[in-house]
What does this fold into?
Amino acid sequence: MKRIFIIVLDSFGIGALPDAKSFGDSGANTLASCVTSGGLMIPNMIGAGLGRIHGVTCLPKGEAPVGAWGRMAEKSMGKDTTIGHWELAGLISDSPLPTYPDGFPEEILTPFREQTGRGVLANAPWSGTEVIEAFGKQHMETGDLIVYTSADSVFQIAAHEEIVPPEQLYAYCRIARKILRGKHGIGRVIARPFVGTPGNFTRTANRHDFSLEPPEATLLDALKAAGLSVIGVGKIQDIFAGQGLTEYVYNKSNANGMEHALAYAQKNFRGLCFVNLVDFDSQFGHRRDSIGYAKALNEFDAWLPQFLEELGEEDLVFITADHGCDPGFMESTDHTREYVPLLALGKGVQPQDLGTRESFADLAATVAELLGVAFDTPGKSFADRLLKR
It folds into this structure.
């Protein structure tokens, strides 16, 4: 193959994993909640085989599928963005990244205060929109930083752009990133800028993630070392801390990310374009907005045909996800432990059932083999059965 695209519909789970109960996620199903909303219209993904995936009972199977379909289980012990993407790139994490349900200890906050010269507000798990409403006014009056977390392995810093300009906020995040190592090696430090006035605050598109570096070489590193292009679209640059990429671009929205993906499909390169569309997760999953989630899926589905038109004979695209975030699951607003879809589309793809893959890392093994690059991963390639003969 010449070009492979991986498009991650961030948080698009399709049903609870067998171990979901141990994560507090029994019965979670992001796709089913979108169907239940009554507004889901995704004929192109159904045509690719989404409704034929084992365990998917909420969609029609469709006629004469044009792609290959299956589902992947997460083998890593987590359900966050970082671990999910690392596994998609071939790394399985045996231990979960640290979380802080009671807030961050002083051994983290004391050096953070000393090195930033600012106080800390909140310091507990919060909804991102609720925490700025609760502490935004005090932050503007004192200059103290709003520091909070969630059920995920994240250290989030919110600040008003008129009080702490984004570049200064990013500098504070880099300070936190240096502190958060070893036993406190949190997956992501996240800058959360916002604007507005008390009672009318809104977060801006200037979010920036500072991720922990992958502990081992990933698929991205292997492809780059082989001289191939490795292009990151959206959060990919942040998730992998820049490792293994030859080029990257950030997204302002799903629509902007699809524009970027289409633009790369119209370019001549050999290698991988790894795309993350985060609005599914951040705008709809965490906010438990089933209708908005379904609408976002509709928009992606309507865009998909024009993207596929740009693929050549030696190109293909995989559509998948990194975890779930069921908008109809009211036990919490956190990610949910789910299977993710595996759809493969391209002129050379043989329509077929790829079954249930034991790990997201199977995708990394497959991409490496299709691109002719050696890569040591626990994942098992399905390249030999994917293409028409």
Notes: The mean pLDDT is 96. The chain has two domains: 3-94+212-385, 106-210. The radius of gyration is 20 Å. Residues 3-94+212-385 form a domain with the Alkaline Phosphatase, subunit A fold (CATH 3.40.720.10).
